[in-house]
Amino acid sequence: MDRGCIKDDGSIEVMEKARISSFQLFLLVSGFLFGSTVILAPAQGAKNDAWLAILLGGAGGTLLMVVYASIALLNPSKTLVDILREKLGKVIGNIFAILYIWYFIHLASLVFRNFGEFICTVTYPETPIVVVIGFFAVVLAYTVNGGIEVMGRLSELLVPVIPLLFFIIGLSILTVHDFTAFLPILENGIKPVLSAAFDYISFPFGETVAFLMIFLHLNKKEKLKKVVFTSSAVSILLAVMVFFRDIFALGADLMSRATFNPHLTSLLIPGLNVESLVDINLLIGGGVKISVCVYAAANALSQIAGIDDYRKLTRAIVTFCVVLSVWVYENILEMFSWAEKVWPYYSIPFQIAIPLLLLLLSLWKKGKTSKAKAGSRKG
């Protein structure tokens, strides 16, 4: 269980007794990366060449995640709030921490809306979206209040289901398929591929910046980079396989016009209704992503506000996320447009600019410390 004490400067020093294994962290990161990609196809802007964009964007996204892991390793046992305060000063650090709290809450709200739009469009069209999101939110609030250990154990139980259900849905290509549907390669040039690759870096890899509030819980810090590489590789592999599965089953033209490709693919297996499996995948992946974001936001806010237990803030944050998720878009078309045209650029300060600054400052401090130690030994 998380416990903390208030330091003299009013900040929270977390005496973290909760620990998760490297396998649990791997599953949490993998589930987070899968997240909403079950319905918002990554790199879809590259059309037939989306697989190339996934590989390129995945490589860039992996490097970005290594940046986050390096920041955590250079600042052991510190949260993102602690690192911001230490590197940028208390005032500026708190301002940036508040901006990150907003970012985590905003991201959780967008995933809530992704989930609600899908369920209300495909499965329960007569149900108000606020009801669907509200029920989901209650479950996730309870999960986050259970602590990081509970989240880790649930990831062990649920996240392995995602690739299993993917392979079941993949049976559709046994009956309907065109294995040349992704050809010709680079028909529209390299520019759409690079643009889609950039989008794929920000969604979902850059969003793992939220784990800077969680990496300190890993029981074996030396395995952090291995966990990052492995979870990233698994996510990229699954994304490529999902792309080929969908384009082989649907064809390039239908895939470019369909709203939810995985759902449409699941309808193509004759005599077998596996439509609900897409819902389950979204529940698991989206649930992990929202839980991590809410957990990160609640912990960060508790440090800023000087509250010793983040659980006191969880319900308020989840409630705000639900309200924001209903308000943030007018319709589903606006949701897709925002994800493709606005989100990647909106995220640059949070995902790239500030983390790179923190990494440089952390390396600089490490260099100064190493020189000081070397000087004291000579003396």
Automatic annotation (TrEMBL):
<protein>
    <submittedName>
        <fullName>Uncharacterized protein</fullName>
    </submittedName>
</protein>
<keyword id="KW-0812">Transmembrane</keyword>
<keyword id="KW-1133">Transmembrane helix</keyword>
<dbReference type="GO" id="GO:0016020">
    <property type="term" value="C:membrane"/>
</dbReference>
<comment type="similarity">
    <text>Belongs to the amino acid-polyamine-organocation (APC) superfamily. Spore germination protein (SGP) (TC 2.A.3.9) family.</text>
</comment>
<keyword id="KW-0309">Germination</keyword>
<dbReference type="GO" id="GO:0009847">
    <property type="term" value="P:spore germination"/>
</dbReference>
<feature type="transmembrane region" description="Helical">
    <location>
        <begin position="157"/>
        <end position="177"/>
    </location>
</feature>
<feature type="transmembrane region" description="Helical">
    <location>
        <begin position="127"/>
        <end position="145"/>
    </location>
</feature>
<dbReference type="Pfam" id="PF03845">
    <property type="entry name" value="Spore_permease"/>
</dbReference>
<dbReference type="InterPro" id="IPR004761">
    <property type="entry name" value="Spore_GerAB"/>
</dbReference>
<feature type="transmembrane region" description="Helical">
    <location>
        <begin position="95"/>
        <end position="115"/>
    </location>
</feature>
<feature type="transmembrane region" description="Helical">
    <location>
        <begin position="228"/>
        <end position="248"/>
    </location>
</feature>
<feature type="transmembrane region" description="Helical">
    <location>
        <begin position="50"/>
        <end position="74"/>
    </location>
</feature>
<keyword id="KW-0813">Transport</keyword>
<feature type="transmembrane region" description="Helical">
    <location>
        <begin position="280"/>
        <end position="301"/>
    </location>
</feature>
<feature type="transmembrane region" description="Helical">
    <location>
        <begin position="197"/>
        <end position="216"/>
    </location>
</feature>
<keyword id="KW-0472">Membrane</keyword>
<feature type="transmembrane region" description="Helical">
    <location>
        <begin position="313"/>
        <end position="330"/>
    </location>
</feature>
<feature type="transmembrane region" description="Helical">
    <location>
        <begin position="342"/>
        <end position="364"/>
    </location>
</feature>
<feature type="transmembrane region" description="Helical">
    <location>
        <begin position="25"/>
        <end position="44"/>
    </location>
</feature>
